[in-house]
Amino acid sequence: MAEAQNNITVSGEGNQYVTFCLGDEEYGVDILKVQEIIGISPVTKVPYLPDFIKGVINLRGIVVPIVDLRLRFRLQAAEYTDRTCVVIVKVGERVVGMIVDAVSEVMEIEEAMIDAAPSFGSGVRTDFIDGMGKVEERLVLLLDIEKLFTEGEMQEISSVAGAEGLEEVAAGSAGEQAVETEGCVEGADARGRGGDQELLPQDAVQ
């Protein structure tokens, strides 16, 4: 994949979250777990994988597994648009890209405004929900990235990135994988130097 010309580099500290949408629901990820946000681009397919693991991309020489969070959460698949983004996160020692419908904003949520995740019984996993952030009149589901995937799923994700020959396959399709991030982040202004953009709290969508 060609190096992104309009990457959105996310930086910050403290109790801040990068929020994104999947359908009508809003989710948040600790900003310290987010490395960057890029536009959707073609992926190199790998056979015999779960549906939610779409394949890999070559991100500046690093083979990054790409997962579709809609499919991971068993939501209905949706067509990718110019708002679709890939949130690059660090899960343990592995870099993973998560496809989301759109990135909303970076917001700060006080501890007092975060409730514990509700329990839906022993048959429903909620361990990856870190809490429910109350922001004005809406709720933001805060995700614990380290618990988002089961141990077995992480093994499959890691095996994809480490599969022999994938580096060459991904690099060979570099000319077809130019990243388009225009419109990817709702309401975010370009503030970076050169081709980079920074997504800052003051860029929040009202």
Structure description:
The protein is mainly β and 206 residues long. The model is unreliable at 1-9, 164-183 and 187-206 (pLDDT under 50). It contains 3 helices and 13 strands. Helices cover 11% and strands 36% of the residues. It has a single domain, classed as OB fold (Dihydrolipoamide Acetyltransferase, E2P) (Beta Barrel). It is globular, with a radius of gyration of 17 Å. The strands form 2 sheets. A 7-stranded mixed sheet has the order 5-6-8-7-4-1-13. The chain has a 6-stranded mixed sheet with strand order 9-2-3-12-11-10, with no helix packed on it. Residues 172-206 are annotated as: Disordered. Residues 14-154 form the CheW-like domain. Keywords: Chemotaxis, Cytoplasm. This is Chemotaxis protein CheW. Pfam families: CheW.
Number of helices: 3
Lateral strand order in the biggest sheet: 5-6-8-7-4-1-13
Q: The biggest beta sheet, please?
A: 7 strands, mixed
- Which parts are unreliable, with pLDDT below 50 for 5 consecutive residues or more? 1-9, 164-183, 187-206
Brief summary:
This protein is mostly beta strands. The chain is built from 3 helices and 13 strands; from the N terminus they run E-E-E-E-E-E-H-E-E-E-E-E-E-H-H-E.
Write the layout of secondary structure elements.
Elements: E1 8-10, E2 16-22, E3 25-30, E4 34-39, E5 53-59, E6 62-68, H1 69-72, E7 85-91, E8 94-100, E9 102-108, E10 114-115, E11 129-135, E12 138-143, H2 151-162, H3 166-172, E13 197-199
Parallel strand pairs: 1-13, 3-12, 6-8
Antiparallel strand pairs: 1-4, 2-3, 2-9, 4-7, 5-6, 7-8, 10-11, 11-12
